[in-house]
C-alpha cells in the first residue's frame, strides 16, 4: 500500500507452528495457543494443560457369547468383567474412535461395542479391584501410566487442537 512504512506497522501473522518451525519470520506478534496448551514441543518443557477423565459407574461380569452395546455390536469371546464409564459421544468421545481405550488403575481398558451418547463399556477383565467411582482416564496421566497425545490423535483421527476445543465445550471444567 503506498505510503506505508514497515517500521510503522505491527504485523501479527504467526502461530505456535511459526514459532517452532525454526524458520526466520519477520513478523511482530504470534498466537501461541498450541504452545501454551502444551500441544507442541514437550522437549521445550511445555506440558498438556488438559486431562479428560470420567468415572466408572458400574462393574458387572458377563458370560462368553453375551452381546454388548447398541445394536448388539460386540459379542464377547470369553467370560468378561466390564465397566460402564460415564463419558460418551455427547462428551466428545468420538463414536468412530478406533482401537479406543481408557486407563483404569493405570492399565489399558479397551472400549467394547459402540460408544453411547453418555456412556461407554470397557473391558476390565484382568484389572484387579476395579470398582464404582474409579477414574477412567481418556487423555492424560493416570498415577504411573498415561494416554499420550499421539495415541489420542490416532484413535480419534484428528489433532489435539480439535479435541481440546471439542472437549472444552462439552464437559465441565475442574481447575487444579
Automatic annotation (TrEMBL):
Statement: the UniProt record of this protein carries the keyword Transmembrane: no
GO biological process terms, semicolon-separated: D-alanine biosynthetic process
Domain of life: Bacteria
Catalysed reactions, as listed in the record: L-alanine = D-alanine
Coiled coil (residue ranges): none
Keywords: Isomerase, Pyridoxal phosphate
Alanine racemase C-terminal domain segment(s): 49-176
Organism: Tropicibacter naphthalenivorans
Gene Ontology CC annotations of this record: cytosol
Record-given protein name: alanine racemase
EC number: 5.1.1.1
Stored Gene3D superfamilies: Alanine racemase, Lyase, Ornithine Decarboxylase, Chain A, domain 1
Gene Ontology molecular function, alphabetical: alanine racemase activity; pyridoxal phosphate binding
Amino acid at each position: 500500500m503506498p505510503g506505508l512504512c514497515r517500521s510503522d506497522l505491527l504485523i501479527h501473522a504467526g502461530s505456535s507452528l511459526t514459532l517452532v518451525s525454526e524458520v526466520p519470520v519477520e513478523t511482530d506478534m504470534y498466537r501461541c495457543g498450541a504452545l501454551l496448551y502444551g500441544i507442541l514441543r514437550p522437549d521445550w518443557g511445555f506440558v498438556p494443560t488438559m486431562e479428560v477423565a470420567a468415572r466408572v459407574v458400574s462393574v458387572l461380569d458377563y458370560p462368553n457369547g453375551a452381546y454388548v452395546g447398541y445394536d448388539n455390536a460386540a459379542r464377547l469371546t470369553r467370560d468378561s468383567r466390564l465397566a460402564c464409564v460415564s463419558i460418551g459421544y455427547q462428551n466428545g468421545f468420538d463414536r468412530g474412535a478406533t482401537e479406543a481405550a481408557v486407563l483404569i488403575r493405570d492399565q489399558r481398558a479397551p472400549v467394547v461395542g459402540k460408544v453411547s451418547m453418555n456412556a461407554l463399556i470397557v473391558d476390565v477383565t484382568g484389572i484387579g479391584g476395579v470398582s464404582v467411582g474409579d477414574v477412567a482416564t481418556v487423555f492424560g496421566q493416570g498415577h504411573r501410566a498415561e494416554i499420550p497425545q499421539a495415541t489420542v490423535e490416532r484413535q480419534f483421527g484428528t489433532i489435539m487442537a480439535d479435541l481440546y476445543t471439542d472437549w472444552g465445550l462439552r464437559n465441565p471444567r475442574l481447575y487444579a
